[in-house]
Amino acid sequence: MERGGLLLYILLVLSTFFSYIFLNKNKIKPRKRAKLPPGSMGWPYIGETLQLYSQDPNIFFTTKQQRYGEIFKSHILGCPCVMLASPEAARFVLVTHAHLFKPTYPKSKEQIIGPSALFFHEGDYHTKIRKLVQGSLSLEVLRNLVPDIETIAISALESWAGGHIINTFHEMKEFSFDVGILAIFGHLDTYYKEALKKNYCMVDKGYNSFPNTIPGTLYNKAVLARKRLSQLVSEIICDRREKRLDKKDLLGCLMQYKDEKGQILTDNQIADNIIGVLFAAQDTTASALTWILKFLHDNSKLLEAVKAEQKVIYESNEDGSKSLTWSQTRSMILTHRAILESLRMSSIISFTFREAVADVEYKGYLIPKGWKVMPLFRNIHHNAEFFSDPDKFDPLRFEVAPKPNTFMPFGNGVHACPGNELAKLEMLILIHHLVTNFRWEVVGSQNGIQYSPFPVPQNGLPARFWNQTVSNQRQQECA
Ligand code: HEM
């Protein structure tokens, strides 16, 4: 063989060899001797479902971690699963090897939300929808929403004031729904807003009920309400097309999308993604806000410090007669830390689900194809190795940034929450008005946790609210 030919031949052999190694490395093919992680698979068929649901789920996960370590197997809701309680393992599943783990939801839930919603997907479709959602929730867009979110927050707080008992979680759900509608549709006609709310509420009620087609059941009512929601979104789309409205909100971004072949999204794809975003936004933010109120209420020194921080802003806005600005919302350092600590303590999304698309080996353990994989965010957030004295509520711990991949209230990787900045913004704005103009009292003993399915303080944290400015004026008039 000629010298040039020999060189080419050697290069070809080497490149084949290295591509083989590279491809196999990325596939993480399990070696023959890889074994299943430790743990118990419970009873035939039901596995450990009863153990998980008959007690506080956090106790189930924590006990397992103490017994088996940071990776263990179990069997819940009819599925074999591997649970992962270390930052590295969560990063492996959600970030570095996300292509080996696909999102997985029960079919009944997928049908109710809408099968084209981004969180059920991966690959190109997921990437393109995610870009649109992220674009509509970017910081440039959010900064213009501050005055409107403020109006929604003030109106919500005023409706709670007067001393009657309210269910904090329910009221926070109304608030986060209204902010969600604002981010999706901008200013929307009251008729549509009310119709969307009424039908969404029925979907919400049926979402966690037993799936069946029997007329009159919660699930069946939810399916019918979901159809009406699609019709409503189609009407709003038609209306915008007729008026040639060119808006920058989420609906606008979804309507304007065209791929390189000129293909646009169908009305059903748009509706599924809008309902999906509303769904992802509402209970999560409402639950987080309810916890913040509880933590502020239970930590009077912190509440005073947060009040002092907000009072400076309030006074610089001529006692609230000027609107909050975007840069003021970015300067609420202590309030922001209190929000982060509330998110850590409550760990609303305690874990997430993925499914292994191939046999995968992690740290010598086999994760078999088809098994569910659950990164346990809450266990990581409550691990003393990463957060000292983890059960103590201490916002000051966020003076120092947490170690990488140890703080994931909004998830991590390709499916991480695109609404995290909106969620934090609405919390900051609501807290600003709450602590500068209102006072509140929690009613009854409030130490329990309820799962709805997100953890919420017992009974939704019943509380009474008073408008301090109105009370002060009345006192002055009487004096
Ligand atoms: C405190 C409030 C919130 C929390 C704690 C939260 C948490 C999360 C988490 C942990 C995920 C990732 C789930 C996974 O990997 O399986 C997620 C995804 C998502 N969140 Fe949020 N979220 C919040 C508020 C919001 C808001 C306000 C919006 C929209 C306005 C939103 C929209 C979404 C969407 C669309 C996804 C799916 C992303 C994808 O699959 O690519 N979330 N959220």
Features:
single chain, disordered N terminus, alpha+beta, binds protoporphyrin IX containing FE, Cyt_P450_sf, 5-stranded mixed β-sheet, 479 residues, Cytochrome p450, globular, 3-stranded antiparallel β-sheet
Low-pLDDT runs: 1-26
Q: What number is the mean pLDDT?
A: 91
CATH topology: Cytochrome p450
CATH class: Mainly Alpha
CATH superfamily: Cytochrome P450
EC number: 1.14.14.137
Enzyme class: oxidoreductase
Protein name: (+)-abscisic acid 8'-hydroxylase
Subcellular location: Membrane
Summarize the structure.
The protein is an alpha+beta fold. The protein has helices at residues 3-27, 49-53, 57-68, 87-96, 107-113, 123-136, 139-143, 146-160, 168-185, 190-207, 218-243, 250-256, 267-298, 300-316, 326-329, 333-346, 377-381, 420-437, 468-478, and strands at residues 71-76, 79-84, 101-103, 165-167, 354-356, 360-362, 365-367, 372-375, 438-442, 449-451, 455-457, 462-467.
Overview of this protein structure:
Its EC number is 1.14.14.137. Pathway: Plant hormone degradation; abscisic acid degradation. InterPro entries: Cyt_P450, Cyt_P450_CS, Cyt_P450_E_grp-I, Cyt_P450_sf. One of its GO terms (cellular component) is membrane. It is found in: Membrane. This protein has 479 residues and is of the alpha+beta class. The protein has one domain: Cytochrome P450 (Cytochrome p450). It has 19 helices and twelve strands. The strands form four sheets. The chain has a five-stranded mixed β-sheet. It has a three-stranded antiparallel β-sheet with strand order 4-12-9. Helix 13 packs across helix 16. The N terminus is likely disordered.
